[in-house]
Design goal:
alpha/beta; Rossmann fold; 19 helices; 18 strands; 19% strand
């Protein structure tokens, strides 16, 4: 099957959020299963122009009475070898990655490209920026199409097309032959939206879980990944203790990394200083501002990590409400990495300044730092209002770090929750995190306290009521067979067996989605 994948972003070239990571991985695994795959995108910020490529054509597009010339660049993905086609115009390249004008023109560029270079079996668009392109490919090229909803809350601008007045995302869904979202639970959640429910009754609609590439995201590959994401310019081992590890020694290595980087934050500050000063023209990332510091405590003082885009969806309001109370009631620390909406960035700065010594807020987008936060944290949190799938929790677990998350969407599909009463019903041998239901500060507080109670504070209580494969009850969270150590191993195994693109079967499900689109289109 020959498949064209349309995307606004692709890691590591033009990656903003999890969509870029999925657009790196999905084409790779479709290709591995015998499909011919091309990825079509924009040359945002000249990132494709800055790597080896060839110019294969020029396309002339008329938009609102003005003519624009775009170079068609062909290259190969630097990590996967998948063919990439990028439309490049120096003026348009510098527009914001999500500028609606770009994607109004993108639709015509895609149609013009296929008119010039021939057809494919199926065209698959991802998220609202590709919605109008999917509609025009379906109508003008008469080709089978699919669209993947990565976040239905962001629908794009309203557009009149073929007598319909809809958002870009809705046009893509309406004109597609099949569509999907990125987890089974979220597929059921969004059927409450009348338009999606109607469309799901007349064409194939599925929830296909995202995954992560376990060859890239795993604790035994951490150093290589960090170096690669810094354009091979920054080696974390030169700044502080950093060491690859597996599930059997995670309990030994992780607390050392935590202490070396976050409890001695001068090392972290030096790394970020060098990151800020380096040329990032060939990689994704922005400068990072540091607010706050971590002081006091010792290596067994719990550290909570948080990595997300700075948008309302990710649960910042309950974080800002819950943590002042948590800091008053418990001895714990917090490290946050985020960039996005200004009021959220300001809230991160304020929290770090109010609780100096307990919080480090890193405001910026620095992909290598995500590995350090997942590695150095005892727990990570994902308190989202809604979450179609989420990759943060999968990446955290791949680094043997359990997750505190709200029980919605893909979070519910990917995290095995510790039972609410593990004394009466222990499942430490299976759990990979803690799920909480209610979106308020009390829900998040319960989730964090439940996690810390059974991995840090109540170790003696656990020994009285549960059995483990050990002789002595653990006195430290990091001892062999302690609850936290068991959860670390669970996380690693769960991601590898059930959540990796290598093993979760999702690439084959996308292939079946394309097959369903072809059948629906022609028959």
């Amino acid at each position: 099957m020959k498949v064209a994948i349309l995307t606004p972003t692709i890691a590591p070239l033009t990656s903003i959020g999890g969509l870029g990571d999925v657009m790196q991985d999905l084409p790779k695994f479709l290709k591995c299963s015998g499909n011919e795959v091309i990825v079509i995108t924009y040359d945002h910020s000249n990132k494709v122009s800055n790597i080896p490529h060839e110019k294969i054509a020029t396309l002339n597009i008329t938009y609102q009475g003005s003519n624009f010339e775009f170079n068609v660049l062909k290259t190969k993905h630097p990590l996967t070898g998948v063919d990439i086609i990028a439309f490049s115009n120096k003026n348009f390249n510098e527009l914001d990655e999500w500028d609606p004008i770009k994607y109004d023109i993108f639709a015509d560029l895609v149609v013009a490209y296929f008119d010039k270079f021939g057809k494919v079996d199926c065209i698959s668009g991802h998220d609202w920026p590709c919605g109008l392109a999917i509609a025009k490919c379906h109508e003008k090229l008469d080709l089978p199409t699919t669209i993947t909803i990565h976040n239905e809350a962001f629908k794009g601008p309203i557009k009149e097309y073929k007598g319909l007045v809809m958002s870009f995302l809705e046009l893509g869904i309406y004109f597609s032959d099949a569509f999907n979202t990125v987890s089974p639970t979220h597929a059921e959640e969004i059927k409450s939206i009348e338009f999606i429910r109607e469309q799901s009754n007349i064409k194939p609609f599925h929830g296909i879980l995202n995954g992560i590439d376990f060859e890239i995201f795993n604790s035994s590959n951490m150093i290589k990944r960090m170096i690669s994401l810094s354009d091979n310019k920054l080696d974390p081992r030169k700044y502080a203790f950093t060491c690859d590890y597996g599930m059997n020694d995670a309990n030994i290595v992780k607390p050392k990394i935590k202490y070396a980087w976050f409890y001695n934050s001068e090392n972290l500050k030096k790394y970020i200083e060098d990151w800020n000063n380096m040329d990032k023209s060939k990689i994704s990332g922005t400068d990072v501002e540091i607010y706050g510091d971590i002081k006091g405590g010792d290596i067994t003082t719990p550290l909570i990590g948080f990595v997300a885009r700075a948008t309302y969806q990710k649960g910042f309001d309950v974080i800002f409400e819950a943590f002042p109370e948590l800091f008053e009631e418990h001895d714990l620390r917090l490290v946050m990495l985020s960039k996005g909406e200004k009021y959220i960035e300001d809230g991160m700065k304020d929290l770090a300044e109010r609780y100096d010594g307990k919080v480090i807020s890193l405001v910026g987008y620095c992909p290598p730092l995500t590995s350090l936060i997942y590695t150095g944290s005892d727990w990570t949190m994902v308190p989202s209002v809604w979450e179609p799938c989420g990759l943060t929790q999968m990446e955290s677990m791949a680094y043997c770090t359990p997750v505190i998350a709200r029980e919605v969407g893909g979070l519910a599909d990917t995290i095995i929750s510790l039972n609410p009463d593990p004394l009466a019903n222990p499942n430490f041998d299976k759990a990979t995190g803690v799920l909480f239901k209610y979106y308020d500060k009390y829900g998040l507080k319960w989730g964090i306290e439940h996690a810390l109670n059974w991995t840090f504070y109540r170790l003696k209580d656990i020994c009285l009521f549960t059995t483990y494969k050990h002789v002595n009850c653990p006195e430290s969270p990091y001892e062999k067979d302690s609850p936290l150590t068991v959860l670390m191993k669970n996380c690693h195994n769960h991601v590898y067996k059930n959540l990796s693109w290598q093993n979760n079967g999702s690439a084959d499900k996308y292939k079946a989605l394309y097959g369903g689109a072809i059948y629906h289109h022609y028959f």
